[in-house]
Structure formats: C-alpha cells, structure tokens
Amino acid sequence: MTATPDAKPLKGLFISTHGCQMNVYDSERIRDVLKPLGYAPVEAPEGADLVVINTCHIREKATEKVYSELGRLKQMKLASGGKMTIAVAGCVAQAEGAEIIRRQPAVDLVLGPQAYHKLPEMIARASRAVGDRLETEFDTVEKFDALPKTRDPDGPAAFVSVQEGCDKFCTFCVVPYTRGAEVSRSVDDIVSEVRDLASKGVREVTLLGQNVNAFHGPAPRLAGGADWTLGQLVRHIAKIGGVERIRYTTSHPRDMDDDLIAAHGDTPAMMPFLHLPVQSGSDRILKAMNRGHTADHYRDIIARVRAARPDIAVATDLIVGFPGETDADFEATMQLVRDIGYAVAYSFKYSSRPGTPAAEMHGHLPEAVKDERLQALQTLLRDQQTAFNQSQIGRVLPVLVTGKGRNAGQMHGRSPYLQAVHFGGTDAALNQFVDLRIVGASLNSLTGERVRARETAS
Ligand code: SAH
Ligand code: SF4
Ligand code: F3S
Asked: pLDDT (tens digit, 9 = 90+) per residue, 381-429?
C-alpha cells in the first residue's frame, strides 16, 4: 500500500469471531466499515488498538467463552496502559446488552448484530467519553444501506448475506431474540455485492441467512412485481459472469419449495450440497421443538432433492437430550440418520437457554444421559461421513483452490460437496479450479492428484 499525504496512520484491529457463518460475514463487514478510519487487521490481540469479539449465544458454553476471553483482554488492556478499545459485538451483545459492561468493566462498547455500521460513531463517542456505549437496535435495512458498497474478498469463495433474522421460534433457540425478525435484502443490493466480488476474482458464493430459503427479497427494480424467492435469486446470480458455484445456508425444511429443489437439478452453478437441519427424528420431540414438520415430511423432502440431484451431499444439525426425550425418541433420531445417510452433520447436547420456552419445560435430562446419546449419535455420524468421503475415491472432481498447505508444494481447496481436498501443487493454482483425481479419503478430508489444469470460465 502506498502512503498518500492525507492517509491516516494505521491502527491495529483484531476481530475474534465465534458462532455461525453469519458472524463470519459480519466480521468481514466490520473490517470493511473500519477500513476508512485507518484500521488494518492484525494477527493477534496483543497491542491492537481495537479488539472486537463477535460473539455467539447459541449454547451456554459459547456464551461463557466470551467472559473468559474478556478476562484475558482486560489484562492486555492494562498492559497497554488502557489504550486498547474493547468492543463486544454479535448475539451475546444483543442478548445481554449493558450486563456485559457490568460484568466486565474493561469493555468499552457493546453492539448487536444489526448495529455494527454504527461502530465508527461509537468509537468516536468512546474516545471523547461521551454518549451511549450500547447499540442494540434492530434495523437491518438501515445497516445494509450504511455498509460500504465494495468489499475486499479473502479468496475465491465468499459469503453474501441475503436474509437475516428468524420468525420460526423453535422452542430451544435464542436466534429469533438475538437476530430479530426475518428481513430479506433486495435482489438489486445482493446482485451488486456479488458483481463486485466476482470482479475481484470470487468464483464461489454462499448465500447466507438464518432461514435462507425463507428469502423473499424485493424484485429487481427494472423487473418489478412480487418479491423473489431463493430459487429465483439463485438462477439470477448464476448468470453473473465469473460466478461458477453457488451455495446457500442454512435452510429450514418448512421453506424448501419445489422451485428451489428443481434448481438443484437444472442450474449447473448450484453445488450438490444441502444443509437441512432436522434436529430430531421423533415427531413428538419435533412438535415440542415447534419445528413445524414431521420426520417423514423431512424424509420426503430429501427424497425429492435426491430425485433432482442424485449425488447431492446432505448435511444436518441434530440436538440430543431435548427436555422429555425418551430412549424411543432418541432411537427415532438414530433411525432417521440411518435412513438419510449424511455426508456431514453437526450434533449438540441440548443446552437450556434463558428466555426460551424449552427452558421452562418439564423433563430436563441429566448430563450423563445427554453425553451417552451424543456419543452414540456421533459414532454413527462419523461412520457416515467417512463412508461418504471414501465414496469419492477414484472420481475426478473439480476443486476450487483456496489456500496453501503447511508444507511447501501442498495446496488445498474444496470439492463440489464442500469437502476439503489436499494435493501437491504450486501457488499458480491458487484461486483457480483444478481437476483432481481422488486417491485418498479420511473423516475430514480427501487427497487428490492433479489431472490437468482447467480453463476457468471468466
Ligand atoms: N438457523 C439455523 C441454525 C441456527 S443455530 C436453523 O434453523 O437450522 C445452529 C444449530 O445450533 C441449530 O440447528 C441447532 O442444532 C443448534 N442449537 C440451537 N439452539 C440450541 C440449544 N439451545 N441447544 C443445543 N443446540 C442448539
Ligand atoms: Fe433457531 Fe429454529 Fe430459527 Fe433455526 S429456525 S434460527 S433453530 S428458531
Ligand atoms: Fe450464534 Fe448468533 Fe449465529 S447465536 S449461531 S452467532 S446467529
């Protein structure tokens, strides 16, 4: 970077990101918001001028982590002579607000997920020691309007937030309270962000939302008419030059419409991967969770998706030990997992969250029962994941090269099925597609050998 006479001196910014992909996206945008103020990312919090913890409230453990991290930061702040500014952003900030400053007075600023565009203003106020140190208003539209219109992508794959918030109110979940009601961005807004990213070399975009398939964003201004669905959005983005791969996450079974399912079969850029959380295989528990669908309804959706795209990799989220879950309910979850056959899955012990309906239910289970069930479930899931990875051996897969390995001559990337693939290659392959023959597979990754370079369609 060349210094211009009026360039502000660089200030060190460290962002610590927890939780889901929404937070990963938000942390990138926080970086974008702070760039014009002269903040540049640094590798460690020590000596940083500003540290932002982007927090997650989903399970008790996630929330507790924040306070232990803040304890460590307080020491660094003292060591810096008080020069470090500490900001707490994200879902814990939204849920606990001023309580955070009360529990850890070293915290300077607290801002919810819909307020981070106000950071510059808040930092200015904090430096003058005037005004509010807390921003937890919900104004998603204002936030997107206020964010910088261009981004600096980190590599060939990028997240793009298209929908935020959740109206589903699953009885175990804090997200509707921390992220607010469902709001979709306009198609024009999303398209201009994707075009900007594609012009900077991004080849794979993952459309993000807490309920991304509930997307109903205003149609393009020139097209007019009713709001668009996610299926329409995907087909539209597939036409943007440079975008070769499209993914979306996380979706809800209730919003899996026919058009979106069809797009998996008829839109080549749509990647063969679907993350569709099911949480439980027991209809009784699904009802108590307020999921709004049965286990068979879920099986039927997966069957239809597989009819459209037979090789699709299916991923899910599961909770064991929801209040009142019996051995029979748990067995129903195991059976559903056996029936579907997951490529990857995230499984959790139920964690009681203050303010959610499930926290007040009867039949909370002992930790030991949850542990035992989680272990049994994870053993089954690991077997399925390994089997899925091994089923790729012998195939040639197009891999988008996203980074260098630890040793010279090693590179890695991701397969269409979102698997990590390691291979021998040079930096020249970085950010490109390569065709790799899969020669090895383990629980977490594949090993490939270069077949030949592929022309990218840019
Ligand atoms: N919006 C997404 C996921 C939100 S949170 C969806 O609806 O699918 C990510 C996952 O965390 C959930 O799918 C669920 O499996 C898990 N989770 C949420 N609340 C939880 C709780 N109280 N205890 C344990 N796991 C929980
Ligand atoms: Fe939480 Fe349910 Fe909303 Fe997902 S759909 S964010 S699990 S309330
Ligand atoms: Fe956590 Fe908030 Fe995401 S609670 S999972 S960071 S939406």
From this structure: 999 999 999 999 999 999 999 999 888 899 999 999 999 999 999 888 9
Provide the CA 300 distance to its chain's centre, in angstroms.
Answer: 26
Say yes or no: 106 and 154 in one domain.
Answer: no
Q: 421 lies in which domain range?
A: 396-450
The pair of three-digit structure tokens given for residue 373, joined into one six-digit string: 């069930």
Residue showing tokens 């959790």: 348
Inside any domain, residue 6: no
Among residues 139, 156, 181, which one ends one of the domains? 139
- pLDDT (tens digit, 9 = 90+) per residue, 323-360? 999 999 999 999 999 999 999 999 999 999 999 999 99
> What are the angstrom distances between the C-alpha of 299 and each of 135, 181, 213, 271?
42, 28, 18, 21
The verdict on the CB of residue 285 being under 6 Å from ligand 2 is: no
Same-domain check for residues 280 and 420: no
For the record, the structure tokens of 458 come out as: 């840019």
- Is 198 in the same domain as 264? yes
**2 preceded by cis ω (within 30°)?**
no
* Domain assignment present for 456: no
Using a 10 angstrom Cβ sphere, with 0-12 exposed, 13-18 middle and 19 or more buried, the burial of residue 266 is: exposed
Largest Cα–Cα separation, the chain: 71
* Alpha carbons 323 and 285: distance in angstroms, whole number: 9
Q: Which atom of ligand 3 is nearest to the CA of 62?
A: 1
Residue 424's CATH number = 2.40.50.140
Query: Residues, the chain, total?
Result: 458
State the Cα–Cα distance between residues 27 and 220, nearest whole angstrom: 27
Number of domains in the chain: 3
Calculate how far, in angstroms, residue 58's C-alpha sits from the geometric centre of ligand 1. Answer: 7
Q: What amino acid occupies position 271?
A: M
| Residue 253 CA to ligand 3 centre (angstroms) | 19
Backbone φ and ψ of 299, nearest 5°: -60, -40
Q: How far apart are CA 144 and CA 162, in angstroms?
A: 10
Please tell me the pTM assigned to this model. Answer: 0.93
Q: Is there a domain that residue 326 lies in?
A: yes
pLDDT at 375 over 80: yes
The CA distance from 133 to 200, in Å, is: 36
Distance of CA 376 to the CA centre of its chain: 26
pLDDT reported for residue 408: 86
CA of 435 to the centre of ligand 3 (A): 35
Instruction: Give the DSSP H/E element, type plus range, for residue 234.
Output: helix 230-237
Residue 131 has what pLDDT? Answer: 63
Q: Which of 189, 116, 203 is nearest to 154 (CA)?
A: 203
Whether the CB of 66 sits within 6 Å of ligand 3: no
5-31: pLDDT as tens digits: 555 568 999 999 999 999 999 999 999
